[in-house]
Write a structure and sequence with these properties.
homotetramer, 217 residues, mainly alpha, Arc Repressor Mutant, subunit A, Tetracycline Repressor, domain 2, 10 helices, 80% helix, DNA-binding
DNA sequence: GATGAATGAGGTTTCATTCAT
DNA sequence: TATGAATGAAACCTCATTCAT
């Protein structure tokens, strides 16, 4: 139970409550336990019985609040993707661009660090989304729409970094996503005990992005 | 059935047969169908009944050839990761480095294109491994060992690209992996209809890696 | 909701209120919705959740007013069978026999029409009783007792139609019941769109009963 | 188990096997137990667990042979209604009409006795069909089509009994059905201990039908 | 009087796996 | 080698019912 009090879980809970409204106590427990189990065993590898046990509630209680297991997944994952990813990311990027106007390296650095922080906070959910997005059409659709929207909103900022055509801006945006995802997977899944310093790694990546290997190393 | 004749499936089949020896016809069908289903629905989302139906064989026949469903997964995924990923990749990288000695950009370009080609050929398997690696300890262990080994073997080539310390070489290796994975997911999962040109995308990435944004665009 | 205002439902409601006393508004809604659902899906095929939804009330409200689902069924079905079937039928038959003394054909005709009218009015309940009587001992007991009592009370009228022995009177009574039930099922369940004229059908049946096929047709 | 050896169950089994082909032993047991339970408790009142227990097989075995509980019901009830009711009844009626040509009373008597015998033999199934027909659209559709077909085939025989118009023939056919059903319900459900003599009851009914009450009693 | 929340028991169905043939 | 038949365990979900508010 105490696990549930970590930042990672509270952040997801808040996002879900933004969509569901104030939730009954046992409904909250169901959400937290589901989040925990899905992240650990995957959606299909998690039984509703397990969720109920981990939440300390009756299995039937889950179904009072969510019509189906699939629905439970979507009602947990969607709000984070929907309400947090796009608006928060674009608002933040805009703000950072304003603060550090004229210093693109700093902007990029801060944006990357903030996105990595976000992924850390929502770590279990990132894992779930990553897993399910490969097989779940609904989740994929939500994700694609949001990412598309995000790009539209921060394209001007991307432009500040140099890419002159729309195509190149898209490429840069994609590459940035790939870099962040790749690094996040490394630090959380592949080598969680490596003693990562986000700052150092981001500095390396920013250097690479702006100056290339030749200048960097 | 005809789906099974695509390159993607034949390549996996070959890899599996390298480990299993020549397989009985229905065993091959089982492997192909399992590959297909796992890629579409994930391991847990696939029932042995579904595999049997898609293979046009009896469910029991699967268990004649594989002691369990989990074993079926590993005996499909492991050989590709084990026998193909590391030796093939390192041999190929070495060969390319020799061919284009003194032209690091060309080496990187060819290595990236070749790795992307490999991921395309083994597309369903890449999807399966990606999904299962998040929850399956066995597969994760195999994967990590292989990737570690691969780095050891091609570290000298990485060094040719500039990074001077071991730490920086690891970083570069990781970043490269992230870029390739990110791009592969884009072209196969997120926007499969986008009309991608691997050459152009790789050229952009190589440019970025060597010269950075400032010079590239 | 407006469905509930049909004669069929109001008649049952009245009968139930004769036993329950004036009912709270939501209790009435529960009764009406239960009647509706039981007739449509059968007792076992109806969940209390469905009843609550159709009534627009909370599931728990049903249990405020009725200790159990089974009780709900009996408290709806019993009054109609008990308070309406026997006394009303026998009173009416007696009255009709008095009115049309010496004209047995007319008496029978009016009795049959009136019973068919009754079954039409209580149509959903007839369906419920018919269904449940096949498996529900309680309801069967109530029904049998009432039908037995009814026969006792109208035996003299049956005698007017000709049957001389008790045995023959019983037979006639049974046959009459079979005819009415058979016709009612036809017009409501099997071919509800046939455009039935109760008068014409009853005239045919009365003709058959008194004169037989030879004379009738 | 021995219950299953009664004529009633063997007759249904035969009819089902005509549609299913030779059945595996446990499939037969499943059919017999389902028949038994449905007749006793109704479709919804019967759990698949109960069926399995009564059949002495595993619950999962039922679902190996029938995709769903609903399917099990239909695959038991439909063949009897479909393959037995219409062809058998019309063939038999035709044969009886030939045998007793010129003696309509005898024909009717024999037809009625034979239909009552049929209903006795298929008693559990008659009960199931009667119950389910009230709420199950599929079964109702099958039943209506068959009864319609039956009427078409034996209309000439009905004509022999007197009714001159098509409308009157239909009426007579319906009335006959009502009489038989009413009597069958009496003797099996309402008063099974009454000591019924089908012959005597049929004689009374035939008398009524041909001569009417006036002449009969 | 009414209800939202909760649940234990049980529903149908699916699962991976075994075995006789 | 291959399979049809079989199954115990467990899956997701629904049930009638209780209770605090």
């Amino acid at each position: 139970m105490e696990i549930f009090e970590s930042d990672a879980y509270q952040a997801v809970l808040e996002a879900v409550e933004k969509a569901e409204g104030r939730m009954a106590p046992k409904k909250r427990l169901a959400v937290l336990a589901a989040l925990d189990c899905f992240a650990e065993y995957g959606y299909d590898g998690t039984s509703t019985k397990l969720i109920a046990e981990r939440a300390g509630i009756a299995e039937a209680t889950i179904f009072r609040h969510f019509p189906s297991k699939r629905d439970l997944l979507l009602r947990i994952a969607a709000p984070v993707v929907r309400h947090i990813l796009t608006p928060a990311a674009s608002r933040e990027a805009t703000e950072l661009a304003r603060q550090h106007a004229g210093e693109p390296r700093l902007i990029l650095r801060e944006v990357m660090l903030s996105r990595l922080h976000f992924m850390r906070v929502y770590e279990p959910l990132v894992k779930i989304v990553l897993q399910e997005i490969l097989v779940n059409q609904d989740l994929r659709a939500i994700f694609e729409r949001e990412v598309g929207g995000l790009f539209q909103q921060i394209a001007p900022i991307v432009a500040m970094f140099g890419p002159k055509t729309d195509l190149d801006r898209e490429r840069f945006f994609r590459i940035l996503g790939g870099l962040l995802l790749g690094y996040h997977l490394q630090r959380t899944l592949v080598s969680p005990d490596h003693g990562w310093s986000d700052e150092e790694e981001v500095d390396f990546m920013v250097g690479l992005i702006f100056d290339g290997l030749n200048a960097t190393t």
